[in-house]
Structure formats: structure tokens, C-alpha cells
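User: Here's a structure from my thesis project, written as C-alpha cells. My advisor, Dr. K., wants to see whether a designed sequence matches the one we expressed. Can you design one independently, without my sequence as a hint?
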């Protein structure tokens, strides 16, 4: 009877565990995208300042893409 309770509890908790793993995966993907965007933006700034000596960068804005694979592009 004890194994039946444990199996039932595991079956009830399985959807919660799967949802939690999916949410953690998405959060990890967002963090990686944010870090990559920051690196690309900094590299672009450095390259622009190196190639154009009298450039004045007033503001920097970067947008991070999504994790679903569709990207941030328009058709």
C-alpha cells in the first residue's frame, strides 16, 4: 500500500516538475541571450570607436531575442 501512495504522489507531482523544468530552461535561455546581446553590443561599440575616431555614441540600446527560435525579424 505504501508503494501505491508513493506512485500516486509521483504521478501528481510529475506535471509540476515538468513545468518547473520548462520554466527554468526558459529562464536559462533568457540569461544566455541577455549575456550574448551585451557582448555583441560592447563589441560593436569598440569596433565603431576603433574605426571612426571622432564618433560620439550618445545612447546604447540592445534588444534580446526570444528563446523559441523565431527571432526578432519582420517580414
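Assistant: Designed independently from the structure alone:
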Amino acid at each position: 500500500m505504501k508503494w501505491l501512495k508513493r506512485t500516486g504522489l509521483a504521478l501528481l507531482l510529475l506535471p509540476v516538475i515538468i513545468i518547473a523544468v520548462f520554466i527554468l530552461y526558459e529562464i536559462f535561455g533568457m540569461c544566455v541571450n541577455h549575456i550574448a546581446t551585451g557582448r555583441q553590443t560592447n563589441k560593436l561599440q569598440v569596433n565603431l570607436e576603433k574605426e571612426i575616431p571622432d564618433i560620439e555614441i550618445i545612447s546604447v540600446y540592445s534588444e534580446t531575442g526570444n528563446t523559441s527560435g523565431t527571432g526578432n525579424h519582420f517580414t
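When you compare it with your expressed construct, this may help: The chain has a mean pLDDT of 85.
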